[in-house]
Design goal:
By secondary structure, the protein is an alpha/beta fold. It folds into two domains: 56 residues, DNA polymerase, domain 1 (Orthogonal Bundle), CATH 1.10.150.530; 290 residues, TIM Barrel, CATH 3.20.20. The chain contains eleven helices and twelve strands. The strands form two sheets. Strands 1-2-3-4-7-8-9-10-11-12 form a ten-stranded mixed β-sheet. Strands 5-6 form a two-stranded antiparallel ribbon. Helix 4 packs parallel to helix 5, helix 6 runs parallel beside helix 8 and helix 9 runs parallel beside helix 10. It is globular and about 70 Å long. Keywords: 4Fe-4S, Cytoplasm, Disulfide bond, Iron, Iron-sulfur, Metal-binding, Methyltransferase, rRNA processing, S-adenosyl-L-methionine, Transferase, tRNA processing.
Length: 382
């Protein structure tokens, strides 16, 4: 692997912005007690506040009746400040897909999507307001990066979805969030510290966190190799999703500009390393674009690139069981030259990958009628 991967990764957000207010989701249980002590409030109340937030999913202070009325407002302001306000919620798929546009404390706009299926409920969350990766087919990438989101701002998207399910606001009756995918606005690994903090809050046992399984969480990346290597050593068995979109450097340099820094070979090597270290299968995300990256020969090349890494040690699955290709019918933005592949080309792409032993599925795309492409709703509002 090239020595370039040892270079520090810095994708600075614009300076001079105010920081989001500190929230209990930003803090460990001990730090929550310390925060209340700094404010002259009893530290033991931190666990009660955590229980209301993570276990009871309460957002109305009036329902926190175990807190003394004389201190309730101070306690809530100290550890449960308002982080975001919903500007608009749009529904599709008979109400089982809900896309929410949020306004953060400083006016930045982000999106989250709740998708309910018969066997699970998935939250797709944003990790940055905007994105600095500049992928030309992505609505978010065209707006540039505004700022990183805090750990609590990321977590709040999931908690808001959990509240909606618990309260029966989504067809299908009361439920719970079973899966979280970091595939909303932003490049998660460019906001590494906050994203890892959010993953830990989501997986911490209640009432310290939301009590989710790490195996239900997927973190995506366009290929920030040093951060992929770092994630492999975190000891959190999340699924890694690599947004590859092209198997050759010439095309990927155009579609995913970070590829000019970390090549296809380096990026796939880092993905293979993640699978080797964590024993977790990596998902290769591939947005199918008509006449751009959906050629049959590119399917063959993609399979060859993935097969080159061989099997993992002691892997009892198929030889290339370390990886799974997830083809994504492109959800185009208005006026864009980037459009979804012809279904026949998509089927041939799948056939060629499977013929070479690469497990492949086509993603169930939801929300086309509600500005489904990531960042599209925020761009329209802005």
């Amino acid at each position: 692997m090239s020595e370039r991967t040892n270079l520090p990764l810095v994708f600075d957000e614009p300076r001079g912005r105010r920081k989001p207010p500190r929230h209990l989701a930003d803090l460990t249980p001990e730090e929550r007690k310390e925060r209340l002590a700094e404010l002259g409030l009893p530290g033991f109340r931190a666990k009660q506040l955590s229980t209301h937030y993570f276990a009871r999913l309460v957002d109305d202070p009036a329902e926190m009746t175990d807190l003394p009325a004389t201190q309730r407002d101070e306690l809530v302001a100290g550890l449960l400040p308002e982080l975001m306000v919903p500007l608009r919620t749009m529904e599709a798929d008979r109400g089982t897909t809900r896309k929410t546009l949020w306004k953060l404390f400083d006016g930045a706009l982000v999106e989250s999507v709740l998708m309910r299926y018969p066997d699970r409920a998935t939250m797709c969350v944003s990790s940055q307001a905007g994105c600095g990766m500049a992928c030309p087919f992505c609505a978010t990438g065209q707006g540039g990066l505004q700022r990183n989101m805090s750990t609590a701002e990321i977590v709040e998207q999931v908690v808001a979805g959990a509240r909606a399910l618990t309260r029966g606001e989504v067809p299908g009756g009361p439920g719970r969030v079973s899966n979280v995918v970091f595939m909303g606005m932003g490049e998660p690994l460019a906001n590494y510290k906050a994203v890892i903090g959010a993953v830990r809050r989501l997986t911490d046992p209640t009432p310290d966190g939301l009590g989710m399984s790490a195996r239900g969480i997927t973190v995506s990346t366009v290929g920030l190799v040093p951060r992929m290597l770092q994630l492999a050593e975190e000891g959190i068995p999340v699924t890694l999703a690599l947004s590859l979109h092209a198997p050759d450097d010439e095309l990927r340099n155009e579609l995913v500009p970070i590829n000019t820094r970390f090549s296809v070979a380096e990026t796939v090597d880092a993905a293979w390393n993640y699978a080797k270290v964590t024993k977790r299968r990596v998902s290769i995300e591939y947005a199918m674009m008509r006449g751009i990256n959906d050629h049959a020969w590119r399917a063959d090349l993609l399979a060859d690139v993935l097969r080159e890494r061989g099997a993992l040690p002691d892997d009892r699955r198929s030889r290339w069981g370390w990886v799974h290709v997830n083809l994504i019918p492109l959800n185009p933005t208005p006026g864009s030259k980037w459009t979804a592949s012809d279904p026949a080309d998509e089927r041939e792409f799948v056939r060629r990958l499977e013929a070479k032993g690469i497990p492949t599925t086509v993603r169930d795309t939801r929300g086309r009628e509600i500005d489904g492409a990531c960042g599209q709703l925020a761009a329209t509002e802005a």
